[in-house]
Design a protein that fits this description.
Elements: E1 4-7, E2 14-15, H1 17-30, H2 38-45, H3 49-57, H4 63-79, E3 86-87, H5 91-100, E4 104-108, H6 113-119, E5 131-133, H7 146-155, E6 162-166, H8 169-178, E7 182-185, E8 203-205, H9 211-225
Parallel strand pairs: 1-4, 1-6, 4-5, 6-7, 7-8
Antiparallel strand pairs: 2-3
Helix pairs in contact: 1-2, 1-3, 1-4, 3-4
């Protein structure tokens, strides 16, 4: 019986790529370097601030210099955290449908709480998430299943009563490790087209609008077996 749907945040629920790439470009331009196009930065944003600094400045920075530039990037991101960020097409309707069906939903993300807390008030979905789990709340991040299991506890559902949606292989592994069905999406920050179909998820969605039909089919199956 499906009772809840959990989402990764960046690249699954929200397209944060322009604001994250812009934060890197602020640092690059501050350091006298040319800005990078969105087509280049988008593929790196899923891997976090460290990956963005390496993309912009290479692998040869000292640890101290890397940390300095990383902090500059994070400050620039926080200053403009929702300037260009949007929900992916179909997500708002999906949340409306989940709410109408009485399903709970939540977020399990590797995005630190400072940035998640600053970002989410800019978006007004049909209902509020039952749980928003950041790595600050955990001893281990995805693909460790700790965050997913904590979300289940807060939502008062068992792992097999929920489904996890993500745009990275670590999301699918985390779901499997938690004993939860998964949906891999191809519209997010995947490195190569259609690679999400190779992660072994229970279901695949090329666009966000493809997620609801999967959920609806599961709900109809529930009704048939009730």
């Amino acid at each position: 019986m499906l009772k809840a749907v959990f989402f990764d945040l960046d690249g699954t629920l929200l397209d944060t790529s322009i604001d994250l790439g812009s934060a890197l470009n602020v640092v690059l331009q501050h350091e006298g370097k040319a800005a990078l196009p969105h087509s280049v930065t988008r593929a790196a944003v899923s891997h976090g601030a460290n990956a963005l600094i390496k993309l912009g400045f290479g692998e040869t920075l000292s640890e101290a210099r890397h940390a300095e530039l990383r902090q500059m990037l994070l400050e620039a991101y926080l200053d403009n955290i929702a300037e260009h960020t949007v929900a992916f097409d179909g997500i708002e309707t999906l949340i409306e449908n989940l709410t109408a069906k009485g399903l709970k939903w939540g977020i399990i993300t590797n995005k630190p709480q400072t940035y998640t807390t600053a970002l989410m008030p800019h978006f007004h979905f049909a209902s509020q998430p039952t749980a928003t789990i950041c790595p600050d709340n955990l001893t281990a991040s995805k693909p460790n299943p700790e965050g997913i299991l904590l979300a289940c506890t807060l939502a008062k559902v068992a792992p097999h009563e929920a489904i996890y949606v993500g745009d990275h292989e670590r999301d699918i592994i985390a779901g499997k490790n938690a004993g939860m069905p998964t949906i891999a999406v191809g519209y997010g920050f995947t490195d190569t087209p259609h690679c999400h179909k190779q992660w072994g998820a229970d279901y695949n969605a090329q666009e966000a609008s493809d997620i609801w039909p999967i959920i609806d089919t599961l709900l109809q199956a529930n009704e048939c077996t009730a």
